[in-house]
Specification:
Elements: E1 15-17, H1 21-24, H2 26-32, E2 38-40, E3 50-51, E4 56-60, H3 69-78, E5 83-87, H4 94-100, E6 105-108, H5 114-121, E7 142-143, H6 162-172, H7 250-273, H8 277-305, E8 314-316, H9 317-329, E9 337-341, E10 347-349, H10 352-370, E11 375-383, E12 386-393, H11 423-433, E13 437-442, E14 447-454
Parallel strand pairs: 1-2, 1-4, 4-5, 5-6, 9-11
Antiparallel strand pairs: 3-7, 8-10, 11-12, 12-14, 13-14
């Protein structure tokens, strides 16, 4: 079969062979094994000109330059269910980890075994590499009217463990018009349950009032992002648990994860290059901080995707709130004035470690918004079969933010850098998973978080 014209996209076919003499020799063998159609391209840019949804693309890793990784990442992003197979070369290259992280790619040694070639020829996923959902039918390749320009090289990602790969599989399934690649529930039960709220990135590290910005484990997640689209309503309620369609703001989550992953990769390179002394120690310390950020940030995304349910234990809500306020009163950096009203018998059914995370985030936002001269009022009460925790405070720098925006990811982060972009959304998701709710109301120059949980 003759190769394609460099100015044309790939023709019809379910198997696309990239450039290189190795792959040219595979065409007759694949046809003999049952492949209905095989397409050979001579330039990776041709892949951007065709609709490759549901197709399998074979790439010779020995001929793949690192700068061409951005083209292949764009192919995977723009073509749902497209499968990428890297062949030969060094599987430890950073580009291999980057291209296979979302579960829609794999690496195979050269020479290829007949069983693997047979599975590819017949349109099946190789069992060891399957992991991105059920196999789909293989539609013919179609031309796009206006081919997009090749994207910039995406961020390199270091090798990661299965937990982070599970996160990437969730984030990689951006919503499609046909509803393909639904959200996969994230297993948060295995996450560490340390009560911590995560620091922002270096660009956003600030010292918040009441010491919240100083804590090593700062509020729920980190990273820079853009605000979600504004809503029109004034009352804020906890969002429903995620459905098969991933919210638009997951694109920002992907960008932040990519940023942290790149920092880890660069930090590791500096560590390997550093021979001894202060340079090596500094590189290791920075790498350790970024690993902590990555772990905490991915946990908050797990809470957003599939928050864990209650574990059957009971928690005294008044006592827990009192413990929080007592610790805040001893902060050396000052902070707002705290007023507390307790209620007897406010014992709720919830997992304490998760409830601590949620209350920590709420009080962090309230304290930072109120500032050193503000006042934060915390009250615990019961209403029917529900226990209530209400936190009232002046909005400060958040005064112009509509009430319904407070529970969206990234909405607070630009205005209140001491809080991670997922702080309040993750708290709301945790409470929803525990059978409760989180809402925010606005009345004049006061905002009030209302936390509800069922009584034990």
């Amino acid at each position: 079969m003759s190769p394609q014209n460099p100015d044309e996209g790939p023709s019809r076919g379910s198997l696309i062979l990239g450039p290189g003499p190795r792959l040219v020799g595979l065409e007759p063998l694949l046809r003999a094994l049952g492949a209905e159609s095989v397409v050979q391209v001579t330039d990776l840019g041709q892949l951007l000109k065709g609709d490759l949804s549901g197709q399998r693309v074979l790439i010779d890793l020995t001929t793949l330059a690192s700068e061409d990784g951005g083209i292949l990442r764009r192919v995977l992003r723009d073509n749902p269910n497209c499968r990428l197979e890297l062949i030969g070369g060094d599987p430890t290259r950073a580009i291999v980890q980057s291209l296979t992280l979302q579960g829609r790619g794999g690496w195979s040694s050269w020479p290829l075994d007949t069983d693997r070639l047979t599975l590819w020829a017949r349109g099946h996923h190789f069992p060891a590499l399957a992991g991105s959902g059920p196999e789909v039918s293989q539609p013919p390749v179609q031309f796009k009217p206006t081919p997009p320009a090749a994207g910039k090289e995406a961020l390199l990602r270091p090798q990661t463990d299965p937990e982070i790969r599970a996160i990437e599989r969730i984030l990689g399934g951006l919503p499609q018009e046909d509803g393909s690649e639904p959200l996969t529930p994230f297993d948060t039960q295995s996450k560490p349950k340390d009560a911590a709220h995560e620091r922002g990135g270096e660009e956003s590290e600030t010292t918040g009032s009441a010491g919240f910005g100083d804590q090593e484990d700062s509020a729920f997640g980190a990273g820079l992002g853009t605000d979600p689209q504004e809503s029109k309503t004034r009352q804020s309620k906890s969002p429903p648990l995620p459905t098969a369609h991933i919210p638009h703001w997951y694109r920002d989550q992907v960008a932040d994860l990519a940023d942290i992953a790149q920092r880890l990769d660069l930090g590791l390179r500096r560590t390997l290059e550093a021979s001894e002394g202060v340079e090596s120690e500094s590189a290791l310390r920075g790498l350790s901080d970024d690993i902590l950020r990555l772990g905490q940030f991915t946990r908050t995304i797990g809470y957003l995707a599939a928050p864990p349910g209650p574990d059957g234990s009971s928690v005294d809500l008044s006592a827990l709130a009192q413990d929080f306020l007592s610790s805040l009163a001893h902060e050396e950096d000052g902070g707002p004035r705290y007023l507390f009203r307790a209620a007897p018998d406010a014992v709720v059914r919830a997992e304490k470690s998760l409830l601590v995370l949620a209350i920590d985030a709420i009080l962090a936002v309230a304290s930072l918004a109120a500032g050193n001269k503000g006042e934060v009022k915390v009250g615990v009460s019961t209403e029917g079969q529900q226990a209530l925790l209400e936190v009232s405070f002046p909005p400060g720098p958040l005064a112009q933010l509509e009430a319904d925006r407070w529970l969206e990811p990234y909405a607070l982060h630009r205005l209140l850098p001491g809080v991670g972009p997922n702080a309040i959304p993750a708290a709301a998701a945790i409470l929803a998973g525990q059978g409760g709710d989180l809402s925010l109301s606005a009345a004049g120059n006061e905002r009030c978080f209302r936390l509800e949980l069922p009584l034990a």
